[in-house]
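Quick one:
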Amino acid sequence: MIYEGAPSIHLADIARTLRQKRNENYRCLYLNSAPMIAGMRSHLAALGMDVEKEIAEGALVLSADQGHLLDGRFEANRMIEALHVALQLALADGFAGLWAAGDMTWEFGSETNLPKLLDYERRLEVFMHSHPQLCGVCLYHRDTLPRQAIDDALATHPALYVSATLSQLNPAYG
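Output:
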């Protein structure tokens, strides 16, 4: 998902998608800043989800932890390994899979190493293709990322998230 403006504008739509994936028995992981986590909690509650119960049961993980960063720098291996572990735990706990969403500006930290971001996105797509129980949405804030990062994101993702009810094939993929 490529968006402009305040990140909070899209929380309601991402929350609807998350709820849909929970209804399909996916463990849901939402990674973002603490204020965005608070906003997601509010939107999920407004949709009728018992957020505290979902968290206590391990069905919902809302995290502002940036343990995938090393000295403030993005580490693709750590991030992919963390997703792999989270997926394996979700499957072992009886979930259909893992649905994850995260804002790439937040995930990448203060680093602006675009080749590293592109490498991560390519590796993530390979990982997702080999682990079909993992799905999700990468959010790209057009206002905070260089144009090249947006172009690279388009080239590495086969589908574009438009809304909770619409995804489309990405003509720029490949």
